[in-house]
Request: fold
Amino acid sequence: MLELLFPRRVRTPEPLPQPNAQLALGALLVRVALANRQYLAAEVAQIDRVLSATFDLKPLDAAKLRAECEALERHAPGTPEFTKILRDEVDYAERKALADAMWAVAMADGRRDADEEMQLLAIETALGLSDADIAAARKNALGKL
Reply:
């Protein structure tokens, strides 16, 4: 009876935004955090800090960007597409800094996780980082544990 009075509206999903460097980075940060099938508050906070610092955003704007990146990560292309955007739009030195930021997200919970490390290696390789720079980012992150 209520269904006749108040029919459910079929909600059409909003189209996903076209990925740019901000969204690609945010989606990759979310992907790293989700690699071990857990998405902890410490990781969310670290993603917000990275987005805020990288793109000079206020905390609320960084949180909004992260939320958009979470939706994009769930429904958008795979890691190679995101890393291609970053390779095309971000110079090598900044991509090295992004690798450090991704490691900070992975280590935000204070634990090493093999799934997160595998995801990071795939991303760093796809970003075109050298083996030496990948090893340095890993060593730096693990040294902070």
Remarks:
- Residues 19-143 form a domain with the TerB-like fold (CATH 1.10.3680.10).
- DSSP finds eight helices and no strands in the chain.
